[in-house]
Design a protein that fits this description.
The protein is an all-alpha fold. The protein contains six helices and no strands. Helices cover 82% and strands 0% of the residues. Helix 2 packs antiparallel against helix 3, helix 2 packs antiparallel against helix 5 and helix 5 runs antiparallel to helix 6.
């Protein structure tokens, strides 16, 4: 009986041990592979995606609407191109300055918040009785957005978006066809910008494209309609 019991114990250990080891091993491998995929913080790239896409979309819509507005009252291609180029330069400078001030203000707010949290943490450590060192001067600025880089990125993105309608209109002499091409090219570019933003941010591509496209259409239609209305009311251009 003792020998039989020993054989049973050996067989049980021989059968069950590999099963549990394999299951634990597979679960451990699965758990090790999940954090990299499921816990990637897409908000880290949100600052740059927002600045770049906002600049490109603003440049595209602003210059396209400006050229459509001028085209509503004047058929001269030179006037449309000059208006578009002026819009490109003015808009790029405005975007750069606005983004620089905005991001710099955000950095100041976040830096002040970090100092307050470190100060409160140090005060709490002293109350407990432990030794605490002040870290107010050890704030990691690398984690904060860079105002200069954001400004340059916004200006370049605006210029890229603004070049789309300018290039599209530069080689078309017929007035109505030129307006149609500007609208079509701007619409295609809006879809691309909306899709790229959605892919990088892991959001709905359909919603992003529809939102950006409808907004651009609305801006161009309002600019064209109001300029046409003012031009037809007797104002000499």
């Amino acid at each position: 009986m003792a020998g039989h019991g020993a054989r049973d114990q050996i067989s049980v250990n021989h059968v069950e041990a590999p099963v549990y080891n394999n299951e634990n091993g597979s679960e451990q491998k699965q758990c090790q592979g999940r954090p990299e995929d499921d816990h990637f913080d897409y908000s880290q790239r949100a600052q740059w995606v927002r600045a770049a896409l906002l600049g490109a979309n603003d440049g595209l819509v602003s210059v396209s609407s400006l050229m459509m507005g001028v085209g509503a009252v004047k058929e001269d291609m030179k006037a449309m191109l000059l208006a578009g180029f002026a819009g490109l330069v003015a808009g790029a400078c405005s975007m750069a300055i606005g983004e620089f001030v905005s991001v710099y203000t955000q950095c100041d707010i976040e830096r002040a918040q970090m100092k307050r949290e470190m100060k409160n943490s140090s005060a709490g450590g002293r109350e407990i009785g432990g030794s605490s060192t002040s870290h107010e001067d050890e704030i990691d600025d690398e984690k904060l957005p860079n105002p200069a880089q954001a400004a340059v990125a916004s200006a370049l993105a605006f210029s890229v978006g603004a070049l789309v309608p300018l290039v599209a209109a530069a080689f078309i002499k017929q007035h109505k066809l030129r307006l149609g091409v500007i609208g079509a090219v701007a619409s295609l570019a809006l879809l691309v910008f909306g899709g790229v933003g959605a892919v990088l941010g892991r959001t709905s591509v359909r919603r992003s494209c529809a939102r950006v496209l409808l907004g651009g259409w609305l801006a161009m239609a309002i600019t064209f309609g109001l300029t046409k209305l003012i031009g037809s009311s007797g104002l000499q251009m």
